[in-house]
């Protein structure tokens, strides 16, 4: 089963940020799709529940200095 979540990342400021987020998240095992948008600062991620959790994703984003705004 997959889960999709859309959240805002206030640190997105340019196309490079978008690229970094997409590249880093795509490298995580279990993530099936990532789309980040510069203008809206919204990121949509889809993942396999059996392989990765939201906590793992959130931790990675914090580690690379793009923490999600949602709780
Ligand atoms: Cu940037």
Give a written overview of the molecule:
The structure is a single chain. This protein is of the alpha+beta class and 71 residues long. The protein has one domain (2-63): Alpha-Beta Plaits (2-Layer Sandwich), CATH 3.30.70.100. It is built from 2 helices and 3 strands. The chain has helices spanning 15-26, 54-63, and strands spanning 2-8, 31-36, 42-48. It has a 3-stranded antiparallel β-sheet with strand order 1-3-2, covered by helices on one side. Strand 2 (31-36) and strand 3 form a beta hairpin. The radius of gyration is 11 Å and the shape is globular. The model has no long low-confidence stretch (mean pLDDT 97). The protein binds copper (II) ion (CU). Copper (II) ion binds at residues 13-14, 16-17.
Shape: globular
Overall structural class, as computed from helix and strand content, comes to: alpha+beta
Largest sheet: 3 strands, antiparallel
Work out the helix count: 2
Strand content: 25-35%
- Give start-end ranges of low-pLDDT stretches: none
Nutshell version of this structure?
With 71 residues, the chain is α+β, with helices and mostly antiparallel strands. It contains 2 helices and 3 strands. The chain has a single domain, classed as Alpha-Beta Plaits (2-Layer Sandwich), CATH 3.30.70.
Helix-strand layout with pairing:
Blueprint: E1 2-8, H1 15-26, E2 31-36, E3 42-48, H2 54-63
Bound molecules: copper (II) ion.
Residues 13-14, 16-17 line the site of copper (II) ion (CU).
Summary keywords:
single chain, 28% strand, alpha+beta, binds copper (II) ion, Alpha-Beta Plaits, 71 residues
């Amino acid at each position: 089963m997959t889960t999709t979540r859309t959240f805002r990342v206030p640190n997105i400021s340019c196309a490079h940020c978008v690229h970094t987020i997409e590249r880093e998240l795509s490298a995580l095992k279990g993530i099936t799709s990532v789309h980040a948008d510069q203008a809206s600062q919204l990121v949509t991620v889809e993942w396999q529940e059996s392989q990765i959790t939201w906590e793992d994703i959130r931790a990675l984003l914090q580690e690379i200095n793009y923490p999600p705004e949602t709780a």
